[in-house]
Input
Amino acid sequence: MHQLEYKLLCLTLVGFMSCVGCSGDDSENSYDSGPDGWLLDRDGMDSTEDMKVDPDIDQSVDMNPVMVGPELEYPESVRFESVEFGARVTQLVVLKNNGDAPLNIQEIVLSLTQGSPFNISIPDPQDLDDESLDTEAIPTTIAAGDQLHIRVAFMSQTLQPVHSSLFVRSDDPDTPNAEIKLIGNADSACVRLIGVQSAPAATTDFELDFGRAVVGVPLERTITIENCSESEDLTVSGVSLAEDSNGEFVITEWAAGSATAVIGPSDQKELKISYTPDSAAVSTGRLSIATNDPTWSSANIKLIGLGRSGVDVCPVALATGVVLNSGNPPQQSITTTPLSTVELDGSGSSASDSSIQSYQWSIISSPAGSTSRLLPRNTSINPRLFLDLAGQYEVELSVYDDDGNESCVSSRVVIFATYD
Output
């Protein structure tokens, strides 16, 4: 055996400590341990610096190193600030494999696909900025130490915050189902109006129809101003009436009077408007609400009402509702949980000298993103409403008598769907 090979074997057997008295067959080339663990030849000369051993340090070698395997690194969330209605913005999400084995990907999907404001694609690694090179084909693996880019696009379809999730399913032993939260319109003040309808014409944003009111008798409606931001205050800097020459519409209650109102995240304040017709004719006005919502700084609401003389006889609408199979009595204010079904009831409506001929139900407000509809139809006496999302729902009933007269005042049911 070569002298150097023999020497290394000797060192290994004693745990890489100083080797004293190790010698080979060649007496001319025997070695002793010198000071500080240096191996010296008999003449006292260093044989090699590579053979230096520090006796105070554990020189053992781990013959079974721990393997990490695949290890996915991903962001917890992707936030898009307020985006103008109809505009599209994108961000790149980076998935990294910090492990020492390939990461096998089973699926990368969005929690909502149909009608979702979010979309994903895979950019070309050589040109991340050119969207025309993007593909929908998801790679099946990410090599150890490599990364994958995903382009997340957000198309703003509402002025309110939107939530979704991107799921990455892989063979990462610690996080096989990684969730990346997607939030649109997340970081700015956001105004939402409850109690008004989208205007059919482009002249204003919304419409508030008071229906028929008896001349000289005030009829009041409530508009709820909600801050739909989760992090920023909503400042309402002005509430004003215009285009009401006869003064038939009046702001009867506002949380801040004429001063600026600050509404905290996810909070709301009420604004009450009254309509007192001075003649049997159509009345119109306009209400403007100025806020610091960057995508909707001024909301304009068309006010409309129809005055009727006191000799007119109006049928009376009465709407109630009950959570299906709850056993509770019918009410006009209902609190329940999401995914419940509320059965509405218009049978309490009446006409003084005739009978109710038809019913007309309308969903006045519902949570953003809700697709709930009145079933089987909105002209049924007892339609049902499935509460598909958490939030506030408001349903209005108008009735018509045998002579075709509409109820002067509609009736409403307010439903709060909450997990609390």
